[in-house]
Each structure stands twice: as C-alpha cells, then as structure tokens.
Amino acid sequence: MAACKSPILFLTFNRLDTTKEVFNQIAKVKPPKIYLASDGARDKIDTFGIKEKDKVDEVREFLISHISWDCEIKTRFLSKNLGCKKAVSSAIEWFFDNEEYGIILEDDCFPSISFFRFCDEMLEMYKNNEKIFMVSGWSAFDFDKKTKDSINSSYYFSKYNHIWGWASWRRAWKKYELENKNFIDDFKKIKFDSRKEKNEYKKVLSAYFRGEIDTWDYPWSFSIWKNNGLCIYPKNNMIKNIGFNRDDATHTTGESKYQNMPIYEICFPLNHPDKIQRNQNLDMANYKIIASPNIFKRIINKIKRYIIKRKTKD
Prior knowledge:
Spore Coat Polysaccharide Biosynthesis Protein SpsA, Chain A, alpha/beta, two-stranded antiparallel ribbon, eight-stranded mixed sheet, globular
C-alpha cells in the first residue's frame, strides 16, 4: 500500500463506528505523523443511558491503542466542550502551529486511498503559490455527468472550499479569520457570479458573524474569498460522508442526496490544468449543485431555531 507523506490531523468526538471506518483508511497509508484532536464531552446522556463522556473516552482509547505503524503521535484531548466552532478551528490552528502543511479529516469523512496521494502531490506542487489556499477531496460532479465529462484535467481551480477531506498550508491558514468586526465592508468587496449567490451567502455569513451559527467553516470560506484565494477541486469525488441521518451528528442529522455518493480511486500521473486561474464555468455548474435553495433554506431554518432557543433560555 502506498504511503502517505503528509502529516494528518484527525478530528474526532463521540462516534466510534465512523471513527473506526475513517481510521482504517488512514492506517492503510501509514502517515509519518498523526495529530488526534477531540473536543471535550458535554454533560449529556443518550437514549440508551450512556454518558457522552464514556463515548468520547472510548473513541480516544481506540485511537491510541490501534496506531500500529511507526509514526509520531500528538494528541489534543480537551476536557471541556468548546463546540464545533472553537474546538475545530483551534485544533487546526494547533496542527499548523506544528506543521507547514497537512491533511485534515473528520470522523465522518471516509476517503479513498488515492485521496492521500492526491493531497501529497498538490501540497508539494503548490506549496509556494500563495494564491492556492486548500485542496479538496470532495466533488459534486457526479450530479452533473455532462459537466464532469467536459473536464479535461484531474482537477480545476475553484473559489469554493469543501471541507469533507481537505489539505492546506500554514501560510494559508494564517489568513483565517474566526471573527471579523468589519465583515459588511469586507463582504462588499467580494465578487460573486450572481446577485442570488451574493444574497444567499450574505445571509449565512451575517448570521455566523452575529454568533448564530456554531461552526468554523463559513469563516474559512469568507477568508479565502476576501483574499481572492483559489481552491483545488477534483474532477472525481474521493470522499464519502458517512455521518448523515444520525442523532449524534452535529450538522448532518437529516438525510441528504450526498450520503450515498460513490468515491473513486483516481489515476496517476495527474493531468494538470493549463493555467492557474479560476474556472468560472465549472464553478457556476458546481454552485447549481451544492447551493440549491433547499440547502440555504435548511441553514436559515437552523438559525431561526437557534434564535428561538436562545430567547427561551433568556
């Protein structure tokens, strides 16, 4: 089995079954360094009477006891629950404080084996190109076969950053803004392909910066757009999200058209794009797939439920 050359950050929490599946893929490529990050448990008990702390501890114990290859292991096991926004963003910051580059996987993002080599090659090839902010392993183009068949390269350059299995560099993460007091002014400078797209993202990002969404990835998108960054987006999907339709999920509790997507072992050597520039046509096709009205409607509904819940507590 081909080895992975890059350090890997593995983000876990309380789901042992999905953690095992993703970990088994990581174990096949034996990365030289593995960073294990886990948020602290909440004071919760599930419907079977099991404490969340017991679940979190079980996941941590499994990981430590099953790393059987020769590698450097670093852990960040929190005792206090920080939530998705702070726990994940601070774990990524910890990772890039220690590494110049690396791969990030969450416990429900099941990768194909070729994903690791793809990231290795992209991280090396574009390490000094400050235009490139990240490498994604996920692609939505199976939902648009006509567009997929028109792509002549193994990947293209996009403004969209999908974080179900990705990689990046310290130089890019340094520009990440978890908070931004000048969001409205900065947002006005960002170019979008349509008024509809701009309005939808303005709603979501405004809600995030008002503190109404507990997540870390929206500000990453914003930081990339603010800096006119590019993301590497593959033609073929290499990540399957195995965390949908579960009560213990954070943001993927319901069913989704993405939950049964096929993953591919892509071919090497890679076929590179002719130019390092955003492919606007592919981005517009991609937007039609990933940013359907239903997705934004679900996000806005979550925000409304959050506001109602907070008012009830007050």
